[in-house]
Amino acid sequence: MGVERDIAGIALFFIAGTAAGEILCTTDRLSAAAAAIFAAASALLAALMYLKCRPRRDTPESPLSENKYVRVIIPAMFLLAGMSGAAGDRFGSCIRIRDTFLPASLLHEAAVSCSEAFREAIDAVPFGDRDCNALAKALLSGDKSDVSRTINDAFRESGASHILALSGMHLGVMYWILLKMTSVFGNFPAVRKTRSCLIILISAWYTLITGASASLIRALLFISLNESAKMAGRETRPMNTFFIALVVQLTISPHNVTEAGFQLSYLAMAGIYLVYPKMKDWYPGNGRNPLKRLWDTAALSISCQLFTGPAVWLIFGTFPKYFLVTNLLAVPLSTFIMILSAAAVFLHHFGLCPDFLISLGTESIRLLTDILSIVSSLP
Fold first, then answer.
1. pLDDT (average), residues 293-320
2. Which of 296, 298, 336, 338 is deepest in the core (most CB within 10 A)?
3. What is the pTM of this model?
């Protein structure tokens, strides 16, 4: 527990420093306000963790707890590191690496080319109408340019905008697909390592060609850390993964601390890791019980909303009244649509896609839009 507390404390001090650096360097009032809230919350949690918490007598103290000076100096160093990283990122933002570094330029061009080819492959699938293709393309590639205004409004007003915007949830679905596809190769040690490397590479490439948003980068870091732990034969602890990914992402892109997508993505995961396991156990039973599955889905939605709801209210001034209904119906259905659409795109590219798969995908997309239209029309 001591090591876990130290990881969390250092990460929180680093976040507070990064947010403070953004406050000092940004001229945007909204970004500065968001960074200030993030900095204050992180600093408060870190201070409580380091100044109030004491290791139990029956547990060995971690290296950072052995010396009172170390307990102050190391967190202070990470606080300053966060501040200097944010300032350096702001002042050095005019430097474009891909314009000066040939391999990066080639990688960027390859990603753009693959992204265009991916979108064209989705458009080539003969779904029922243009809206179906547009929604499938938005869910798989993040390109919402062809989604009609009516559908956009239905997603926004029903509180399902997070489904339409490519996020960690979408990469999580792709991760599940990759796990199932590579499971046929077996679980021998060498095979498991090869599978993990392949999953990380494909996930990274998918993240790159779909825009590499802050929430996608977060999901990629989670996947990479979990799969790396598997390759090393080590057990992963969710909150350690959470804080390590947070520090890595802010080290690479300190400006993310002021972005709503970054904040909401990590807040949602905090709710899932801290609240969901407890809420899930409130209803006894196993996954075979339909009511248990319904409760698990509701508990997942509520645990996320407990953490993201206040932030959404502060940032956007709104709160989705029917979030529970929307998430209970739309999230499983959109996940099903993504799996169907991915299979249809892959099989259609090789001329092997059966008609029933396309029909099922079309009807599922229409059902999703109908449900969201009904929810958005509620008072």
1. 85
2. 338
3. 0.79
